Amino acid sequence: MLSCTKMNGNGNDFIMIDNRTRSFGAEELARFARLLCRRGLSVGADGLLVVEPSERADFRMRLFNSDGSEGEMCGNGARCIARYAFEKGIVKSPSMRFETLGGEVRASVDGRMAALELAPVSLDEAVRGRVMVDGVDYEYTYIIVGVPHTVIFEEKRSRAFADYAPLGRAIRERADLFPRGTNVNFAVAAGGGLDVMTYERGVEDMTLSCGTGSTASAIAAMQLGLCGAEVRVTNPGGVNVVKLAFSEDGRTVFPKLEGAMLMTAELEILPEALL
After folding, report:
1. Overall number of domains in the chain
2. Is residue 80 among the annotated active site residues?
3. Do 136 and 112 sit in the same domain of this protein?
4. Global pTM?
5. Do 154 and 235 belong together in one domain?
6. pLDDT tens-digit profile of 96-146?
7. Choice among 4, 37, 74, 80 that is catalytic
């Protein structure tokens, strides 16, 4: 049997595995993600998070999306894995650093809350553009926050949460604009804060929260003068707080992300979950 823990950050849910012994290779972990993340048929989750050894940090975080693809980074997942590592004794201090494919992350855990210092974001890689979907022209900002994000601002919500999925999918699949694919964030600015709904690449659907999406939306909003350097970002699953600092030349952002995460179950995976 496979032992794992179920966690979520603002409803963005994950299956956690300790693979410090490297018992499982990338192909097997991708297979676990595809099979275990099926909702209704198996455990169900947005992704699989894996702890592995690191030569230059406390540990290495790997993320396998529900479609089996390996993702570079996940903000909510990074908070979850920080608490998981501390609660399981993988690290002895609530302050830690770990490597991801999207850069090194520093984390501090305080009970159900965690604060992250994400890898620096280069505004030189940010792109403003327009994309046409079903005859509607959308203006977007493209920013890499460990993973690629496209942010679209609306004056008010144009549709219900689930109804953003076809629009997000159509934009995500525009390989001419986004050769790496992209997460798509639909943001509304109000009262100095942001309301953000995200279509996630790899999950290939809307998710209840996205930490890097909240961060990308905050950076894009600040560039447009819609918010300040600290902003509350409300997702359908909860609230992320994003704090932004800039280099002297203003071309590099040093983001911090704060929010809650929950440990909801300790699981022994039975063989039939992998059928």
Report:
1. 2
2. no
3. no
4. 0.93
5. yes
6. 999 999 999 999 999 999 999 999 999 999 999 999 999 999 999 999 999
7. 74
